[in-house]
Design brief:
The chain is of the alpha+beta class. It has one domain (8-105). It is built from three helices and eight strands, in the order E-E-H-E-E-E-E-E-H-E-H. The chain has helices spanning 29-42, 77-82, 92-99; strands at residues 8-12, 22-23, 45-46, 49-51, 56-57, 67-68, 71-75, 88-90. The strands form three sheets. The chain has a three-stranded antiparallel beta sheet with strand order 1-7-3. A three-stranded antiparallel beta sheet has the order 2-6-5, with no helix packed on it. The chain is globular. The relative contact order is 0.22.
Length: 111
Amino acid sequence: MTVVRSWLVCGDSNNPLSPDDRLGSPVSWSEIQGFQSCLDFCGLSDIPSLGCYFTWNNKQVGVYRVCCKLDRMLGNDEWMASFPLLVFIFILRKLKQVLRPMKTNGFRDVQ
């Protein structure tokens, strides 16, 4: 696939890209493989981020708690070259407050 423009893809991936992307439940290679193959095909990679590394949890406590990195900002080489110093800061509560009104305009899966 050849993309000649900058791509930025943001969202909830529902898939880990690394064993470090989840605590409380092991990550299997099969979970990583399909998503990583897709990103490789599209020429996308994770953009560095600060803030909450784990962007989802199952709201359980103790040994039943699972935390995952699901929300990602991905860019292609053109994006990375255009914005080499860019780092995203995940402040999820604020981001979700901004996105929630979009839910009424056709984006029903924003929670």
